[in-house]
Predict the structure.
Amino acid sequence: MRKFNFSSEEYKMHTPFVISRGTRTATTVVLVEIEQDGKKGWGESCPTPHYGESVESVMAQIADIAPKMEAGLSRIDLQSALPPGAARNAIDCALWDLEAKQSGKTIAQLMGHQWPDALQSVETISIGTADAMGKKAATLANFPTIKVKMNAEDIKNRIEAVHKNAPGARIIVDANESWTLEIVKEVAETLKENGVVMLEQPLPPKDDEQLRGINAPLPLGGDESCHVAADLEKLHGIYDVVNIKLDKTGGLTEAKKLLDQAKEMGFDIMVGCMVGTSLSMAAGMFIASEASFVDLDGPTMLDRDREYALTLKDGQMSALDPRLYGGAS
């Protein structure tokens, strides 16, 4: 018989996080722990209101399936028992961790990937004045890649300020659906001239088709438009890069499927995150080891973190401690 426990935890953010959709000062994560035959696995998810989820709705989904989990529901059967999203993510990741410990193999070995011990991640600059964003960029000047949040205001001044203060960094601009096609056409060359190597989700997903055939001077990335492997077909020819996030895929199982299919179809891969602890990032690292762009800086925004936490210095992520997640035992 399995023991199945779940709970929610709030983490304060040391600095407000500002994107085009609003400002956050705290995050609440959902934690799942599964114990069986003396081994325990755990997983974490971050419910996102933008995707129609709340902590309450995710906790209710998990409560509904808890009896089946205690009765031994498999990771494969979980995929049809719950839809993609934060509830399935927390459970799926906990099952992967449990399987690793029961099998004596790491998650990396189970997936056929390398252990994630040499990843480089972006750190994110949230929306502010051009001056404030430039000053933040100066503190990240040694990062190989920086991610910059944008809305539709003062784009040119903001990106010029960031590039001026971190001239050697590759820049990803994330508009979080806040632009129009006209804005993309107007600023694309300026972005490229100022170190931008990818423009992420400029339009809302419903407007994706407008981007087909625009011949943008820099790669375009799909985030909110890409949740699961089944989304790839309609995005082919529109986006060059897809952003895999476990809270969208509903866990590592679908994330691995999405990764493999995206690579087969010629997409470049980015791995992103919601604002969670190092436990959320740790699971994402097993996909990030196969990605060109890594955005797993969530814990850098929090005022506390898990034991065996990850660190990020000048873009270099610390090696994942197997005691945190994914190791064999």
Summary: The chain has two domains: 3-105, 123-317. The first strand starts at residue 3 and ends at 19.
